[in-house]
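Figure 2 data, in text form.
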Amino acid sequence: MAHATDTSTGTTRRDFLMLATGAAGAVAIGAAVIPLVSQLAPDAQTVAAGAPIDVDLAPVAEGQAIKLFWRGKLIFVRHRTKKEIEEAKAVDVATLRDPQTDEQRTKAGHEQFLIIYGNCTHLGCVPLGNAPGDPKGDFDGWFCPCHGSHYDSSGRIRKGPAPLNLPVPPYAFNGDTKIKIG
């Protein structure tokens, strides 16, 4: 009985079928593994949510505040007036519930910009004081209408049930009016 053999190389049809089946199997495994591995990687929205953000503060006028989101958390950025800075620096730190100087809450040479998280440290409400006409509380800062916490122009708790100052996120100045949060 004769076999189908290539006389020049000595390969059979069976060898070819084994090679083709192996290659098809490798392609099938790759087609299954590649989507599985790519599914395990975080999506672009998740990566962007934790990435540092750059903010240009030049358009923020003196006395104005803006709201940003970084890592899903609200950030207040206020361009403070000279009056607000003087009020914040004049406070006797020993009288504060959570003692911090204004200098500890701002960057040297950029005291006019205050960058803080925008949720009350009592129960996470959003204090008022960013929009024109908002009540700024008894200390010219922020007022949380839910439970009556008052923060000063440096974001320090002065009155009400909140136990801590509004936290300062990690940030750095990359120029006179450019910051990187995160």
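Caption note: The chain has a mean pLDDT of 87.
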